[in-house]
Structures are given as C-alpha cells and as structure tokens.
Amino acid sequence: MTTTVINLSSLDGTNGFRLDGEGGRSGRSVSSAGDVNGDGFDDVIIGAPGANSSYVVFGKAFGFDATLDLSSLGGSNGFRMGGGGDSSGGSVSTAGGVNGDGFDDVIVGAIGADPNGRDSGSSYAVFGKASGFDAAVDLSSLNGSNGFRLDGEARLDFSGRSVSNAGDVNGMVLMI
Asked: Using CA atoms, how far apart are residues 95 and 75, in angstroms rounded to an integer?
C-alpha cells in the first residue's frame, strides 16, 4: 500500500485550498453540499457550531485562492446560514433534492435549539436555487418556499445531532 503525504502549507489554489473561519469551531462538520446553485460544480458545506453558523462554498472549475476566509462569502461565491444561540452547524450535509426543483438542498443540525423544551433541537433544510443568494440566510426566516425546520418533540431530544441525506425514501421526486 502506497502512502501519500500532502504538505498543507503547499496548497496554492490549484492543488487545494484552505478555508479560514473566524473561530466558533469552523470545520466541526464538513460535507459535500451537492450542487446547491446548479452551476454544474459540487459545493461544500462547513459547520461552525460555536458561532451558530454554517457556510456553503460554491464550487468552480478553477481560480481558487490558496485561502478563502468564510467571512468573505458574499452570495456569489457562497453564503452563511445562521441561527441564534442554538449550536447550528454541529452537523451539516447535503439533503439531496428535497423539494424536487432540480437543485440540491442542504440540511443543518442545531441541537441547542429549544422549540419544544430545552435542547429539543432542530434541523433546517435550506433549498438550493440558481441565483440570488444573499450573503447570509437567517434560518429563522425559512418559510416553506426557501426551506423549512424540523423540531425535536421534547426536552433533551437533541434533534439535529446528526443529519444526513436519507435518499429518496418514497420513490417520488418530491420528498415531504
């Protein structure tokens, strides 16, 4: 078996790049996001539960700098999703095509959310789209057309501790 060693200090944008966060345990969870903006390139989702945030970085063919500061995401290169004091970003994943519109969606877990008692937890599904992402998506503003929230039933359920794409469980394009 051959072992390959990658010197991370040699990343220059053509052979990989580094994502820098402003703290908040950026990178606690990282996953493919699928193709959230429909441009033909897979995207990456990064969780930062200490900052109650997650970030989607849009993929592209080439032209990455050696370092991308997550605070520089402005809607055209990716966006931030934020929650209020709920540890959102502790788990992140692609959700596949939840609403059947042809764009991949993402799911963000927030075990510290309190919708049905302390730490009942929530998970947020955020829908992908072709364009028009703001630099930040307020998870409390999801209204069914841009995503939705799933809540734990009772105190200490910690719903959202782990999130993942479940696939097409009902054999239909649209999963509800």
From this structure: 20
- Judge contact between 31 and 38, C-beta under 8 A: no
Our CA angle for 140, 101, 134, nearest 5°, is 40
Strands (DSSP E) contained in the chain are 18-20, 29-34, 43-48, 53-57, 67-69, 78-82, 88-96, 105-110, 122-126, 136-138, 147-151
* In the chain, where the domains are located: 18-151
Question: Could you read off the pLDDT of 64-84 as tens digits, one per residue?
Answer: 899 999 999 999 999 999 977
DSSP E strands in 14-86: the ranges are 18-20, 29-34, 43-48, 53-57, 67-69, 78-82
Give the model confidence (pLDDT) of 23-41 as tens digits.
Answer: 788 889 999 999 999 999 9
- Please state whether beta strands 29-34 and 78-82 pair in parallel, antiparallel, or not at all (unpaired): unpaired
DSSP 48: E
Beta bridge partners of 135: none
Within 8 A by CB and 6+ apart from 144, the residues are none
For the chain, how long is the longest CA-to-CA vector?
51
